[in-house]
Each structure stands twice: as C-alpha cells, then as structure tokens.
Design a protein that fits this description.
Rossmann fold, alpha+beta, eight-stranded mixed sheet, ATPase_P-typ_P_site, 21 strands, transmembrane helix, 4 domains, Calcium-transporting ATPase, cytoplasmic transduction domain A, single chain, ATPase-coupled monoatomic cation transmembrane transporter activity
C-alpha cells in the first residue's frame, strides 16, 4: 500500500517538485549544509542547475505553447527570469524560483480539484449496473445497456439506474444527489424516479423513460462541467488585464535593468510581477461557488450568471405552480340554467377540457371521474384552446365554451346574472370558469389552488437576502391574485396578464433599474425568462428543457432554494473581490520591496506562491455551507409554519412532493381580464 501511494505521488502532479527539491537538497549537501564550499563546488552547482532544469523545463514548454497562441503569460515571466538567473550565475535563485513555481502549480491543481468535488460526487453516484426484467427473468446488465421502455427492478439499497416512472411497488428514495434534499421521498405508482438516486426502502418496478446520457443525472454532470469552465465577466476582464499587464512587467523589468545595470534586479521584478494570484482569483471562486450550488441542487449555468445573480434586486414569480402547489381542485359547481344538474354541468365542462393540455382541465376531469362519469371515453370531436381565455370544443353537435368573461364575450354569450357569482368566487380566492353551450350560459365551475406552505417564508428570505421587490405575475383574476398575494406577502401583484404581458412587466422592472430574476418553467414563460437578467427554472429534475435553457435551475420543487441561490451568488462575488484585493496588494507590496531593496527573487516567489494559496483557500470556503444558509428542512418548516390558504383552510403537511415537477404558466392566463391590474399587497 505504501509503495503504491508513493509511486502515485512520483507519477502524479508532485513528481517534478519532488525530484527538483531532492536535487536542491543534494546540492546543499555537497556545498555543506551551512553553505560553505566543499572541495568540489562544481558538483553542487551542477545539481542546482539540474534542479532548475527539472522544474523549469515544463514551465518553458508551457511558455512556448502560449506564445504560439499569441499569449504572453506567467510562464514566460518565470522562464525568462530563471534562464537569466542561470546565465548570470545565480543558480540557487533559478532553482528556487522554478521549484517554488512547480510546488505552487501542484498545490493549485490539488486545491482546484478539491473545489470540483461536487462534480466528482455526481460522477461517483452514477449507477453502473441495473436489474432488468426480460422475458419474465431478472437480468443484471450495465446501466448503459438498459433500453427505453424496459422494466427495471429497484431493490432496497440499490441505485436507480435510469430515469423512469414507477409501475408497481412502494418505496423511499434518497434524491439528495439530484435535488439536494436530505430526506428520502416516498414513491408510489406513477411517480418519477431519477438515475443516481438510492432506494432506502421498499421495492419498485420502474419503466425506463430516459437512459444513459439522456438521464437527468447525465444532463446535470454535463451542465456542471460547462458551468465550471465558463468565465464570468470579471474573469474575462482579468484576462484582458493580464494580456496588457504581463508585457508591461516585461517592459518595466527591461527598463529597470537598462537604467540600473542590475540584471538581478530586473529578473527579480519579472518574478515578483507574476499575476498568478490575480489570474486564479476569479476562476477558483466560480468553480467553488458553482460546485457548492450543485451539491445543494442548484445548477448555475456559468460564472457570468453567478455574478449577475449577486445583483438581483427584484424577483418575478408565477402564481400557479410556484407560489401555489399547481394542483388545483374543484371547489364549486353552480348551475345557472334550468334543466341542468350539477353533475351534468360538470360532465360537460370536463369533456370539453379533457382533450386540452390546459392545467385547469385536470381538476375537472378528476372530479368528474370521482363522480362516476366516463369522460375519457366521450372526448370532444374538436378541441381548441384559446390562449388567455379558455377552451372551445364540439360535443354532440354543440359548440361548448369553458373559460373566462373574455371568451364568453367573443362567443356572444350573455353573462349578466353570473357576474355576482364570479365576483363572489373570485373574492374567495377561487378561479371561476363559465360554461356555455351554443351561446347559452349554463353555469359556473370553480377550482382553487392551495398556496405552498413555504411561499411566505421564501418571500421573507428573499427580502432578507437583499431582494427589495418580489412581484407576482399571473393571468388569473385580480381578486384571486390579491388573495394569494396577501397570503404570501409579495410586494406587488400584476394580474390579468397574457404571456406577452409578463414579458412587458419584466421589461418595466428593468427600466426602473432593477436586476430581475424571473421564475418560470423554461417553456411557457420563455419570452419573459429570456428577457429577464436571470431566468430560473424550479423543479428542474423533471424536465431536461429547464436544465438546458434556464440560467439557474433549482432541481427540487423547493421555493427556499431560490433565496439560497441568491445568497450563494453574493457570497461568491464577495470572495472574488477579496481575492482580487489580496492579489493586487501582494504584487504592490512585493514590487515596492524589490525597488527599495530587501526582497530577493526566491523570497518574492515564495510570497507570490503563498498568495496564490491564500486566494485558493479563501475560495474553498465557498464549499462549506454558511451557518445562516443551513436552512431548516423544507418539510419540517412546512409542518412548523403552515401558510394560511386563501380559501381559509389550514395548510396540510405534504408527506411527499407533488408528482408534477416544473412550473406551468398556462394556468395563469386562463382567467385573465382584458386589462393588466397592479395590486400593491403591502
């Protein structure tokens, strides 16, 4: 074991520093530990030159490679300084500079790898084998060998090898690797499971929907790889700065050498002027910040978006599926036309909605099914969704309309007597839909979507994180929006919005000088998400589109990850600024020390490498979660601090998250009025 470990050190990043350091030690031994010359001083000098060559050759090769790409970097400064030191006979200085630079590079690589630990952890959780049910028999195959549509068996303690849907069985799954959640999640038939998660109990039969490189885990790994390599705006500025700074140091050293005739002073300036800590200060911070976020189920697209997130001053959020659970339930069926019963009215509305993808279709269809109505077997001959208004359908030769007032006006339906009913239901926080057949108003059906238990806490934490304006954007009725806004404590409510109106609302905030984050599903809110400074997708574990399109993807359907992401971004940018200051102060002090005397080439390189390590260690603090960022578990928070429902019902503790991941904006536009209403809730 010891031999293997030692061998790996000699073959790895530490090989050059170890060999170079051994040659330096041998040189000192030959010269005498006290520095006295022995009978054969040339042997000691030869060992010192060999040490400089061993450590310096990789540096020179890197400098040549950079010059071929027309880049003048740190390697060139060290190469010129060490070669010059050898020429003027300062063998110890040449060996010390190259040795320390090699040590610094090895430590830098080691610590940078440490900051990428989140990515390594993701790769480590990737499953290698799967148990597949083929022709009635269990077969163990490579995870990459599972085919879409096959049935995979997930036993207690096993890793889930694919993304899929539970067919049979019950169990609990630890989804920390995907969503960052610490508590296992109960899984039943119809629920989603993700590759890389671990079964902590039960037995599941899963139908594979995504395998191999198409799984959520694979997409996350790809995203984190790209994000950690992407440069922030500050990093790009530092690159441009270094492109001018490095030639400037070379020119300064040359001028000083010519004026003072002191070659050693000029070479020392070259070494001291190395902007190593400055160059590494931003990338290491970005890598560490993005790595910390990945561990917490927060995917940040790159350094640029990390920096922008630190400046977020306003957050715009959908209502349906974001501040509310996104699973509305039927609450009222009111008949307004003689000859119709409540069940008949509900059945008609459910059949009209059954063929649409509208989010309010589900509660109608489910409620009808619970009352024993066969909705799915009696679908409409034609279904036509009308954006922002409702649904039109042809049923048994009748033209049926289910939607808001604007849809009824467009269809020529008189709603006079229903106005009072609509106003009452809206005031109670319910979304009401009118039902008409062949221009005759039949009645009203209403649904309600319960406010998330952690919505109010999210708003409070956003304010605490420095966001001074939280705005709710919804296409719902003003009264419904007012009820939800009051329940969660948002600063403004913009109601009655069509999709393009949400985009305009974001633009308006930006014109007011706000840096806006828009929380949406990455699909239906695409215009607003693209226009916002930062687009945020929540519950992204359920949609690959969200992971690829959002600037920030919150993998769990957890509102509290949003303020955590903003805090992380601000911590990261703060560390960036600290690192830049450390690097600049170090260079300034060393240059002053060289010019006034007292700082040698070896001492300067030692301090320089120490500053690089300080910068890296400072950035590595981001890998630790701050005490005030260790949020109470979401489930526990919901249990301890229930949010009142706009309908007046007490909040129920959810044993497991809703089966639908991601946000839906389509529901927001169903009850849109013709105008945009702004309600100041606070």
């Amino acid at each position: 074991m010891t031999r293997t470990r030692a061998g790996s050190w000699l073959r790895g990043r530490w090989a050059v520093p170890i060999v170079s350091g051994a040659l330096i030690a041998a040189s000192f031994a030959v010269h005498g530990l006290a520095g006295n010359r022995s009978a054969n001083p040339l042997a000691g000098d030869a060992l010192m030159i060999a040490a400089a060559l061993v450590a310096g050759l990789p540096i020179v090769l890197a400098a040549i490679k950079a010059l071929r790409s027309r880049v003048i970097g740190i390697d060139l400064l060290v190469s010129v300084a060490s070669i010059g030191a050898v020429i003027v006979g300062e063998f110890w200085e040449a060996a010390a500079v190259t040795f320390l630079f090699a040590v610094g590079g090895a430590l830098e690589n080691a610590t940078l790898n440490r900051t990428r630990s989140a990515l390594r952890e993701l790769v480590r959780v990737a499953p290698e084998v799967a148990v597949v049910l083929r022709e009635g028999r269990q077969e163990e195959v490579a995870a990459s060998g599972v085919r879409t549509g096959e049935t995979v068996l997930v036993k207690n303690g096993a890793k889930v090898p694919v993304d899929g849907t539970v067919l049979e069985g019950t169990g609990t799954i630890d989804e920390a690797a995907i969503t960052g959640e610490s508590l296992p999640v109960e899984k039943l038939g119809g629920d989603q499971v993700f590759a890389g998660t671990i079964a902590t109990g039960g037995f599941l039969q899963v139908r594979a929907t995504d395998v191999g490189a198409d799984t959520t885990l694979a997409r996350i790994i790809h995203r984190v790889e790209d994000a950690q390599d992407a440069k922030a705006k500050t990093a790009r500025f530092m690159d441009r700065f270094s492109a001018w700074y490095t030639p400037g140091i070379i020119a300064l050293s040359l001028a000083v050498g010519l004026l003072t005739k002191d070659t050693e002073l000029a070479l020392t300036l070259l070494v001291i002027g190395c902007p190593g800590a400055l160059v590494i200060s931003i990338p290491v911070s970005v890598v560490a910040g993005i790595g910390r976020g990945a561990r917490d189920g927060i995917l940040i697209k790159g350094g640029e978006f990390l920096e922008t997130s630190a400046r977020i001053s306003a957050v715009a959020v959908d209502k349906t599926g974001t501040l509310t659970e996104g699973r509305p339930e039927l609450t009222d069926v009111e008949v307004l036309h003689g000859g119709w019963t409540a069940d008949e009215l509900l059945g008609l509305a459910a059949r009209a909605e059954a063929g649409s993808e509208h989010p309010l279709a589900r509660p109608l269809v489910e409620a009808a099914a619970q009352r024993g109505m066969d909705v799915s077997g009696r679908l409409a001959a034609l279904t036509e969704p009308v954006a922002g208004k409702g649904v039109l359908a042809v049923l048994d030769g009748q033209r049926v309309a289910v939607g808001n007032r604007r849809l009824m006006e467009a269809e020529g339906v008189q709603i006079g007597e229903a106005t009072a009913t609509l106003d009452r239901l809206s005031a109670e926080g319910r979304t009401a839909m009118l039902v008409a057949a062949d221009t005759t108003l039949l009645g009203v059906v209403a649904v309600a979507d319960r406010v998330r238990d952690d919505a109010a806490e999210m708003v409070r934490r956003l304010h605490s994180a420095g966001v001074h304006k939280v705005v709710m954007l919804t296409g719902d009725d003003e009264r419904v929006a007012r009820a939800v806004g009051a329940a969660v404590g948002v600063d403004e409510v913009h109601a009655g919005l069509l999709p393009e109106d949400k985009l305009n609302a974001v633009v308006h905030l930006q014109r007011e000088g706000e840096v806006v984050a828009m929380v949406g599903d990455g699909v239906n809110d695409a215009p607003a998400l693209a226009t916002a400074n930062i687009g945020v997708a929540m519950g992204a574990a359920g949609t690959g589109v969200a992971i690829e399109t959002a600037d920030i993807a919150l993998m769990a359907d957890d509102l509290l990850k949003l303020p955590r992401a903003i805090r992380l971004a601000r911590r990261t940018v703060s560390v960036m600024h600290q690192n830049i200051l450390i690097a600049l102060v170090t260079v300034a002090v060393l240059l002053t020390g060289v010019l006034v005397g007292g700082v040698t080439m070896a001492v300067g390189m030692l301090v320089h490498e120490a500053s690089v390590l300080v910068v890296i260690i400072n950035a590595m603090r981001l890998l630790r979660r701050k005490a005030n960022d260790t949020w109470t578990d979401t489930a526990a928070l919901r249990h301890a601090h229930p949010t009142p429902d706009p309908l007046g019902r007490s909040a129920r503790h959810r044993a497991r998250p809703a089966g639908r991941a991601g946000l839906t904006a389509a529901g927001d536009v169903e009850q849109a009025d013709a105008r945009t209403t702004v309600v100041h809730a606070r």
